[in-house]
Amino acid sequence: MKEIKELYQSADWKQEKHVPVIEAPDRVKKGEFFSIEVTIGKEIAHPNETKHHIRWIDVYFQPEGAKFPYQIGKAEFTAHGESAEGPDSSTIYTHHRVSLSFKTDKKGTILATSYCNIHGLWQNSQEISVE
Ligand code: FE
Questions:
Q1: DSSP state at residue 104
Q2: CATH number of the CATH domain containing 91
């Protein structure tokens, strides 16, 4: 059986434009909201055009020792220049970046996933500690 986990690609985001870049504090205060930002193509820009674009970013938090992850939020990027006049004619494009806030009493790992309409699924992760 083919498993979807085999389809998630990863790499160094400084060299591969599809990898979601997670900007989050290394350590946070227990029970206090903090902000994270996830974007695509921070070092090498990813195209944003009707025929080639990022569709969504989906973010999870896996507390250390937990059996299952918690979804923090998902952003869908739905404008990519299309209009009744054809592809790349509207001038309206959603940028592939999302800002989210959450809080936790437990340290763990932020996992970000994303989807390019022609280059598939990508992932990245970052640990955070709690004080
Ligand atoms: Fe792509």
A1: -
A2: 2.60.40.730
Give Cα separations from 129 to 52, 97, 118 (angstroms).
Answer: 36, 24, 35
pLDDT > 90? residue 117: yes
Distance 42 CA to ligand 1 centre (A): 14
The residue annotated as part of the active site, out of 17, 53, 80, 96, is 17
pLDDT at residue 103 tops 90: yes
- List Cβ neighbours of 7 (8 Å cut-off, separation of 6 or more): 120, 121
Distance CA 64, CA 83 (A): 46
Contact indicator for 24, 110 with CB cutoff of 8 Å? yes
Report how far ligand 1's centroid is from the alpha carbon of 19 (Å). 10
Task: Count CA atoms closer than 13 A to 47's CA, side-chain side.
Answer: 11
CA 33 – CA 118 distance, rounded (Å): 35
Cα separation, 105 vs 107, in Å, equals 7
Q: Which domain holds residue 88?
A: 4-130
Regarding beta strands 120-130 and 27-28, do their DSSP bridges make them parallel or antiparallel, or are they unpaired?
parallel
Q: Give the number of domains in the chain.
A: 1
